[in-house]
Amino acid sequence: MPLDPQARAVLDQIPLLSDEVVLALEPSVLRQAFGAMPGAGGPVEPVARVENRRLPGPAGEIPVRIYAPSQQRGLPALVYFHGGGFVICDLETHDGTCRSLANAIGCIVVSVEYRLAPEHKFPAGPEDCYAATRWVAEKGAEIGVDTSRVCVGGDSAGGNLTAVVALMARDRGGPSLRHQLLIYPVANHDFDTASYLENKEGYLLSREMMRWFWNHYLARPEDGRNPYASPLRAASFAGLPPAHVITAEYDPLRDEGEALAARLARDGVPTTQVRYDGVFHGFFAMTQALDTAKRAVAEAAAAVRAKL
Fold first, then answer.
1. Can you give the pTM of this predicted structure?
2. CA-to-CA distance for 196 and 210, rounded, in angstroms?
């Protein structure tokens, strides 16, 4: 379908970076530019409790932010990994999304500030995310979590990390996870799918920007064949938790996300996959501007809640 009018209005407010500019940028510059985009720091939903904390990690403490929708203890938990191409974004950029999910699901959300590339290349990010998830599943009672009801989720690079943590948990003997929420996930080190070619520029995330992210994330190109970097390359998805996969029509990552959903279902994992037409990569966070984003958050929350 044509680009949604609300989505077009959002794009018209965002100064899209040309591929030439992207390729010349230093990560610190892009981090600053992303934080200054229209809508950053806009209205957010109130939640009952917000707490910053540090959890033990493989290379030092991992900052996390905990969101509770009520003062009730024994709530289920969603461990959330932010997007940003493994290079940009942090707890602040995804504060609004985490608040919305905490309220909509009725769970504690633990947002993880994993180490970023290129300062910390693969597999630093996945290892931090796995360590944080283990802590929530083992010691989450300290923050009011029912440790028998833990799931993982994330958007874009965070969707990749969600799939990878689910694989790690299976491969390493735990923790047991109830669900995985994969929001337009980065699933494969491959830039030649139909959606990459159809949506290579003009829709916020470009093909060349993804090359830039991957080049900063991987220490060497062959690391892209590792299933913990490209989860679509895993030999099997058997034994993974149920999944809800979100894709966007005008997104270079659309096809790899849908291929991941198909592989999960083929290997016996209960999987729902929803493509949201007329919108682009990043839409899920834009609930202040897009009716489609409000619907996606509500449907994602219902899918997670059903497994918790």
1. 0.97
2. 10
